[in-house]
Design brief:
By secondary structure, the chain is α+β, with helices and mostly antiparallel strands. The protein has a domain of 101 residues: Gcn5-related N-acetyltransferase (GNAT) (Aminopeptidase). α3 links the parallel β4 and β5. The longest helix is centred in the N-terminal third of the chain and has 18 residues. The radius of gyration is 14 Å and the shape is globular.
């Protein structure tokens, strides 16, 4: 697996990354309904097109994970379910840390993600009862310890 920064973002790449996102979400976000996933797709597409820094983890030139970052904040990190546990998330996060990442938000209802970030040296610095879209999915705010 290799890490690359996405330069141009053709629609074929965006479509591939949306599939990675959906695979990841279905494996880790069991608190989301099918309707929630459908409703989130446009926001995810928009974020993939516009997040300032987009890092890709490639396996045989195929995206299997990605990380989006704005300033010091990791906006998103998703790993295809078939590649979970093989180090893609760690590779991406290490690359982001080298680029200055210092914070991330995680769904409180996603204990696997929380455990990953705590293991990587982050600590909980706050909590919001609602997500960014005002839905009742509590968010934990983490900072690098």
């Amino acid at each position: 697996m290799i890490i690359e920064e996405a330069g141009t973002r053709p629609e074929a790449l965006i479509g591939s990354l949306l599939l990675v996102w959906e695979s990841s979400v279905r494996a880790t976000h069991d608190f989301l309904s099918e309707q929630d996933i459908i409703m989130l797709r446009p926001s995810v597409l928009e974020a993939l097109r516009h997040v300032p820094l987009l890092l890709l983890c490639l396996d045989n030139e195929r995206p299997v994970a990605f990380l989006g970052m704005e300033g010091e904040h990791v906006e998103m990190l998703f790993v295809d379910a078939a590649f979970r546990g093989f180090g893609a998330g760690s590779l991406l996060l290490h690359a982001a840390l080298k680029r200055g990442a210092r914070s991330v938000d995680v769904n409180e209802q996603n204990p696997q993600a929380l455990g990953f970030y705590l293991h990587m040296g982050f600590v909980v610095s706050g909590r919001s009862a609602m997500d960014d879209q005002g839905r009742p999915f509590p968010i934990l705010h983490l900072r690098l310890g």
